[in-house]
Design goal:
single chain, about 450 residues, alpha/beta, Aldehyde Dehydrogenase, Chain A, domain 1, Aldehyde Dehydrogenase, Chain A, domain 2, 2 domains, seven-stranded mixed sheet, six-stranded mixed sheet, 18 strands, globular, binds nicotinamide-adenine-dinucleotide, aldehyde dehydrogenase (NAD+) activity, Ald_DH_CS_GLU, Aldehyde_DH_dom, NAD
């Protein structure tokens, strides 16, 4: 394949090797400039998200802009401390030398992002890559074209292309970028494309982070506050119309409280959207392909709430579906939409066994007041991260690393973890030039062996 982006990559490599991106002042100035540009382009971001996904200004601020601004502030507050050379203890064999860990940028970073939170999922990794001192190429999604254009405008008006650049396009552009030799790849998207990205990275042994998806369960037991659980699960399914990597995918609920939950879910949705849901500012399904896929999933099981749709607007109501089996199409893929299958269980072991039918999910949510049940689920289910008595909120704290496990991805970011992700920690042992311990050199006498054994045990 012709190397389409060779010129861009060469210019970024050259710029990186000037060393300017490494200084604290440069990184802080870049974070400041990004912060100012986001605020300058705030109204364009609202317009783009409205066109791409029918996202309201409030939801856009909450899930896209606010989260990015908060991350920038966090990095600015802590960067000096994170960048410091760290002195660590020496071993006896190193006497009288000293040991240090230097943090250094990887170099040239590629960020590939999806469409569902088009702004947030480009900007959050970018903030980490900037504070770690890298140069960056961003490939936003073709399915959120308006947002991708605004991101390109923000970046080109704020940074020189040899420092940070946006490549707009789809699979061809993404594939061509993956032909290049980056120093780090940060991919957010589907598990299927994650495999392709990892294959491409393996050619150059490029380290990478994969932020993928999966089927994230919610488990509710009879000790839970049911109305609160229903309200929060409804929120998790409604925000971005369920097109959220950490959205509750399916519900495991104790048999005895199922009916109550359905009633409370209905009450919560009606409170959020009053009468005619289609007229309210609920996010729409991103395109016809996904809309038709979701409409097909409505054919599975029995709808017990919702189920209406509007072909002209790519709108689907928040919908509860009962009587699905592991063979139903809706249980075979990540739903990524406002549909919630309900599965009942009679004891917590059954719920845990059910979760184990699937690959390790990105998130898991527990609604319970039973310490025993909570502990049992946490000990026996493997997943990226999650909440007890809430949904999605694990994302809002930069002190909590965010990432998956197994087929929901590997590596993590947010806050300090973003700095770590884009940083190579270089271990350096510094010996004094005056003393050279003779022990390591041949000839190895019996006495030397005894001494070595004393030191290395
Ligand atoms: P996707 O994998 O289709 O696309 C993601 C990016 O990869 C896009 O920029 C796209 O242009 C590019 N791409 C697509 N096909 C490619 C190929 N063959 N080769 C190279 N690049 C290619 O994902 P999507 O539909 O945009 O997003 C939805 C998925 O992302 C869901 O599975 C969701 O769970 C996941 N997701 C995960 C997170 C997370 O943080 N873990 C966040 C958001 C979304």
């Amino acid at each position: 394949m012709i190397k389409l982006f060779n010129k861009l990559i060469s210019s970024q490599k050259k710029f990186f090797h000037t060393g300017v991106t490494r200084s604290y002042d440069f990184r802080i100035k870049a974070l400041d400039s990004l912060q100012k540009s986001i605020l300058k382009f705030e109204s364009s971001i609202y317009k783009a998200l409205e066109k791409d996904l029918n996202k309201s200004a409030a939801e856009t601020y909450l899930t896209e802009i606010g989260i990015a601004l908060n991350e920038i502030s966090f990095h600015k507050r802590h960067l000096k401390k994170w960048m410091k050379i760290k002195k660590v203890k020496s071993s006896l064999a190193q006497f009288p030398g000293k040991n240090y860990i230097y943090s250094e940028p990887y170099g040239l970073v590629l960020i590939i992002a999806p469409w569902n939170y088009p702004f947030h999922l480009c900007l959050l990794p970018l903030i980490g890559a900037i504070s770690s001192g890298n140069t960056v190429v961003i490939k936003p999604s073709e399915h959120s074209a308006q947002s991708s254009s605004v991101i390109a405008e923000i970046i080109s008006s704020t940074f020189k292309s040899e420092y940070i650049s946006v490549v707009q396009g789809s699979v061809d552009e993404s594939t061509a970028l993956l032909e290049e030799n980056f120093d780090y790849i940060f991919f957010t998207g589907s598990t299927q494309v994650g495999r392709i990205v990892m294959g491409a990275a393996s050619k150059n042994l490029t380290p990478l982070t994969l932020e993928l998806g999966g089927k994230s369960p919610v488990i509710i037991d009879s000790s839970a506050n049911i109305s609160l659980a229903a309200k929060k699960v409804a929120f998790g399914k409604i925000i971005n119309a369920g097109q959220t990597c950490v959205a509750p995918d399916y519900l495991l609920i104790e048999e005895s409280i199922e009916k109550q939950f359905i009633t409370q879910f209905e009450t919560a949705v009606n409170k959020f959207f009053f009468e005619d849901k289609s007229k309210d500012a609920m996010v729409r399904i991103v395109n016809k392909k996904h809309y038709n896929r979701l409409k097909n999933l409505l054919k599975d099981g029995d709808i017990v709430f919702g189920g209406k749709f509007n072909d002209d607007e790519n709108f689907i109501e928040p919908t509860l579906i009962k009587n699905v089996t592991l063979k139903s199409a809706i249980m075979k893929e990540e739903i990524f939409g406002p549909l919630l299958p309900i599965i009942t269980y009679s004891n917590i072991e059954e719920a845990i066994e059910y979760v184990r039918n699937f690959n390790k999910p990105l998130s898991l949510y527990i609604f319970s007041q039973s310490k025993e049940n909570i502990d049992r689920i946490l000990k026996n289910c493997s997943f990226g991260g999650g909440c007890i008595n809430d949904v999605l909120m694990q994302l809002t704290n930069p002190n909590l690393p965010f990432g998956g496990i197994g087929s929901s991805g590997f590596g993590s970011y947010h806050g300090k973890k973003s700095f770590d992700t884009f940083t190579h920690y270089k271990s350096i042992f510094k010996q004094s030039g005056f003393f050279d311990m003779p022990l390591r050199y041949p000839p190895y006498s019996e006495n030397k062996l005894k001494l070595i054994k004393k030191i290395l045990k």
